[in-house]
Design brief:
- The complex is a heterodimer of chains A (about 450) and B (about 240).
- Chain A has about 450 residues and is an alpha+beta fold.
- Chain A is about 55% helix and about 15% strand.
- In chain A, strands 1, 4, 5, 6, 7, 8, 9, 10, 11, 12, 13 and 14 form a twelve-stranded mixed beta sheet that branches.
- In chain A, helix 2 packs across helix 15.
- Chain B has about 240 residues and is α/β, with parallel strands linked by helices.
- In chain B, the strands form two sheets. In chain B, strands 6-7-8-3-9-10 form a six-stranded mixed beta sheet, sandwiched between helices. Chain B has a four-stranded antiparallel beta sheet with strand order 2-1-4-5, covered by helices on one side.
- Classes of the chains: A alpha+beta (about 450), B alpha/beta (about 240).
Amino acid sequence: MTALRTFAIATRALRRNVTRSALTILGIVIGIAAVIIMMEIGKGSSGAIRKTIESMGANNLLIMPGTASSGGVTFGAGSTLTMTAEDAAAIERECDAVVGAAPVMRVRSQVVYQERNWVPSFIYGTTPRYLDVRGWTNMADGDMFTDADVRNAGRVCVVGKTIVRELFQGLSPVGKEVRIQNVGMKVVGVLSSKGANTFGMDQDDVIIAPWTTVKYRITSSSAGANSQPANSSASTQASGTSGGTAGSKNVYPGAAGLYPVPSAQQQQNMPVTVRFANIDQIQVSARAGRSKEAIEQITAVLRERHHLRADDPNDFSIRDMSEMAAGLQSTTAMMTNLLLSVALISLVVGGVGIMNIMLVSVTERTKEIGLRMAVGARGKDILTQFLLEATVLCLAGGIIGLALGRGGGMLVKRVMKWPIEPSMEAIVASIAVSAMVGIVFGFYPAWKASRMDPIEALRYE
Amino acid sequence: MIELHDIHRVYRLGEMDLHVLRGISLTIDRGEMVSLMGQSGSGKTTLMNTLGFLDHPTSGRYLLDGEDVTGVGPDRRAAIRSTMIGFVFQSFNLLPRTSAIEQVTMPLAYSKEGLGDREGRERAEDLLRLVGLEDRMDHLPTQLSGGQQQRVAIARALVNKPSILFADEPTGNLDSRTSVEILEMFQKLNRDEGITIVLVTHSAEIAEYGDRTIVLRDGLVESDSGRKSAAPVAADQKGARA
């Protein structure tokens, strides 16, 4: 007996009693629809949470300089002066688990525009890479400052939406000048809105400027600032008059990289005691899911660059934001699994329903089974026939449930505005599960049918 | 073609043994039309079931075409039923909500012959024409009279080209005129197609349609008329009868 023919017999038997077949699969339809909707809602909300976390910097790593101590006195986190902007460039260049790295100088200061003033939550000195690192890709207005501005300590900045509201009363600030500690800074761009971060801090209350500007023009707190300005002010004067002239090229011959190697002449002119300009922190964005790897690579690169011996402790520390992200993700995953298990229970209930109806059907069709056996059907044939009937029923229920679930998902999206993401694995799983339910719960009735004695079955009234 | 040697069949009902067949020996040749007669409880249905491989004897020997088939398993019995045996029942046993043509093609699904859907349908149509239902092929059982339903059942029994047809009280649910039609159809099948027919009945009148009557009583053969016709059994029966 061919599979196709058995299938034909099974479907014909089901068609003989359409109403009952439809009622039988109702449980499966509801179960599968529930599974699909739950999976879509779960996936949608975890996707939404992921996006929120990403906007806060899900894959971001924060590298802080380590603790300096002298004679038993420690100076607190970030007090060593070993981390440089070149470290950031090296991390981005050498670590393949890293998307981007940006050096960050931080300062808290009053900002003045005409007769208004404001103290932003964050004034960051950094490089244009910072936007990529924080996933802050599009500007609301104007442009980001450039590498040249970083090189020249250009007096430019970009501001967040909150600053626009507080200082400029919503008018476009591009081309206006703000003063930070009496340094005039031209606003060249407005950042797109990012909202509050996990701790409720307004991430739009921010001014971003080249780190060189922040370090050498605005703050004088860092140790490096005292000796270095000779160099950078020379470049500033050069660029201040006509940015990118022959003068600045002399200062930075072959200025391809952001931090060109000083020439021998420059080295000679500055027999430095402080060899580099330290920065406050480096922010790194790791490739998705590879932050552990990134931490290892960064540690290796920084230890190498800082000439640490094998038994020296790290002179920096790396903070991993992905822990928090993973925590939030696992919460949603748990909720999704919880809902899914409820949906799966309903599927089992549906399966029990199938088993019930199939048992009734076997009893009711005892005579038919006897007849089929009398004309030459083996027990095996009867078994496959009833098993196939149950499986076809369940599969049909699964497919209807799938359509219903998808429809329900879209309805939820439309009416309740919940984030919904169709899930391929849910679709595949629900089809597989419904076929499984058919086989598992169809087996007992089918087995019972196949074990019938043809004489008894024929005599059954 | 059929040889039974001292067939016993004992049903076990709880503590009690029910001895239905108590040692039956008989021979049925190809092309015979045998009436198996007896009162209810005489064991005639059990004997028919045993002969038709629906049941198996408790002891004794069953030779089919010379082959000992006494102890064959259920799957082999099903295969023999499929290829060699057709059944016609008193209550027709048609599938509900199934057209006549589908009733007739149904046994083909379990046959090893592997007939395609088209050939199967053609054969079923031929058989329905043979039983005189050429204009009722797509009718459901509820749309057919008792006699017509029994004709569908006969066509169904013939679809796998069996060599033996067992009819268990085939006219029990029919009026006398239709009964005659059905019984004449069996005679015609026996005569024209050479099919061996075993007719189980309790009525002597109906038993008359066969050319040999075996009477059972309390699980034993009470009498066996032997063949009524003069034609020698050993000769080519089919030719002799035609």
